[in-house]
Write a structure and sequence with these properties.
Length: 479
């Protein structure tokens, strides 16, 4: 090390820790990690064998934060149109508990134009013309339901299978079960987009590793060419000097490990230094779109104001799964302050026009691009939200939260396209093919080669599972 950069020991260790991006990865205490698992789990890059042959290698999770009205996107309801403007019939509203203070207004029909698309004849409104072109790759789960009519509770359940904070995100369970397919990148990446996306998605709690090792939490990637905070090499230090620092730190850690062989936290931290060093090259390259063709970027809407940010995120998501990232969580925030994400308690027409303009072209392009590259067969693309919205109005031109019946969808990854399940005639409650969020999670894990009943972590004397004690694989949609 040159004298010009002869840092004090304290400064050196601080620099090394910063370069390790410990904050980005959360390499902290293992807490409830049992000793039986410790030797394997301190290294999140270690690949692990699935429980059974996998149909999929990766998940791109499209979180529509705020909850869109699928009654205005995918759920064509002629009876709702017929009854528009009338009070909610008692036969539908029995035992109904409203989600907010807005009360139950008259039935509010969609004002969209509807057409059937593809060989399966799926109904899609005019708000999503590009997704409509891809319906023959999509399995629509039209009997979706959940618990909790507030964003916080329902979002926690969607992402962690819990109703209170503290449980691991689905992406953390995937990394726990399978490890990493690329030792130079995190296996679980989060891409927030738009205004307030991270908070609108209910914050870091939905990509937390909970009681799993902290190394398994999602890694948020920022916009721009430097995706991870504190990852770049400190100014004024050469690659050779940094490598020398890390080698010395490894030697010191090795000596400590020999004296304290049970210190898994130290082992994890040491691994994080090397991973972060490799990521100084691999992470920026993974999200660098310079080598993508102009046609590809245009297809995703990059360069157009309304679609640029979300399109960039989805193209990055494709590049990440190409490079072995297991789980990419994309959060759709509002493109500007004119709307509150998808949360249309009022002004639904304006809200959904803005939000659909943001996501439709990029999502359609992602599905087409994955299919053209042969990646859709092994990549699960999931359109998910914390709940749906009611068929009755709120504030005159909005809709309330609806956890009782709505539509989500999955494409690719060994999933059979088509329509599964339904809601009642007005779109209030799931009636057939009912799919709880636990079932959705169990199905995704199954396609990745993981049995949700066997994916177990010992925590405080309990055998914790990804979907708690609930959930069944939706066998009807498996190809």
């Amino acid at each position: 090390m040159s004298h010009s950069h002869d840092h004090s020991r304290r400064h050196f260790l601080g620099t090394a820790a910063g370069a390790a991006a410990a904050g980005a990865f959360g390499f902290g205490s293992f807490g409830g990690l049992s000793s039986a698992f410790a030797s394997e789990l301190f290294d999140p890059t270690t690949p692990r064998q699935p429980h059974h042959p996998a149909k999929a290698k990766a998940v791109i999770w499209l979180h529509m934060a705020g909850a869109p009205s699928t009654l205005d996107l995918f759920d064509y309801k002629p009876e709702l149109i017929k009854l528009a403007g009338t009070p909610l019939p008692e036969s539908f509203g029995k035992d109904l508990k409203t989600a907010t203070d807005g009360g139950v207004g008259n039935l509010y029909a969609s004002k969209r134009t509807w057409k059937q698309h593809g060989e399966q004849g799926a109904w899609v409104s005019d708000l999503l013309p590009n997704i409509a072109k891809q319906v023959d790759s999509i399995a629509f789960l039209k009997g979706s339901k959940t618990e909790g009519s507030t964003h916080v509770i329902a979002s926690l359940k969607l992402h962690t299978a819990g109703l209170v904070p503290g449980r691991p995100a689905l992406g953390s369970w995937v990394q726990y079960g399978l490890g990493s397919a690329n030792p130079d990148l995190p296996a679980f990446v989060v891409l927030p987009t738009g205004v307030g996306a991270a908070g609108g998605g209910r914050g870091a709690v939905i990509w937390s590793s909970g009681f799993l090792p902290a190394a398994l939490q999602g890694t948020p990637f920022r916009k721009g060419d430097s995706p991870i905070l504190h990852l770049a090499r400190p100014e004024g230090i050469t690659e050779k000097e940094q490598r020398a620092q890390l080698d010395l730190l490894r030697a010191l850690n090795s000596d400590h490990a020999e004296r304290y062989p049970g210190d898994t936290e130290l082992l994890a931290r040491a691994k994080s230094y090397d991973l972060a060093y490799r990521m100084q090259v691999s992470a920026p390259e993974a999200v660098d779109l310079a080598k993508e063709t102009t046609a590809t970027k245009t297809a995703y809407g990059i360069g157009t104001k309304e679609t640029d940010e979300y399109g960039t995120a989805l193209l990055r998501a494709r590049r990440l799964v190409e490079r072995g990232v297991r789980f990419v969580h994309v959060i759709s925030g509002a493109p500007d302050n004119s709307v509150d994400s998808w949360d249309a308690h009022n002004g639904l027409e304006k809200n959904h026009a803005v939000m659909c303009k943001q996501v439709d072209q990029p999502v359609g392009a992602l599905l087409a691009d994955l299919k053209e590259r042969g990646l859709l067969d092994t990549t699960l693309v999931v359109w998910a939200s914390e709940f749906g919205r009611t068929p009755y109005g709120q504030s005159g031109n909005g809709r309330d939260h609806n956890p009782w019946g709505y539509t989500q969808w999955i494409a690719g990854g060994g999933i059979k396209p088509g329509t599964y399940g339904s809601t009642d005639e007005i779109g209030l409650r799931a009636e057939s093919g009912i799919v709880d969020t636990y079932d959705l999670q169990a199905t995704l894990l199954h396609q990745l080669g993981l049995n949700h009943k066997k994916l177990v972590f010992a925590h405080q004397g309990r055998a914790e599972k990804a979907t708690t004690v609930f959930g069944d694989v939706i066998k009807e949609i498996l190809a």
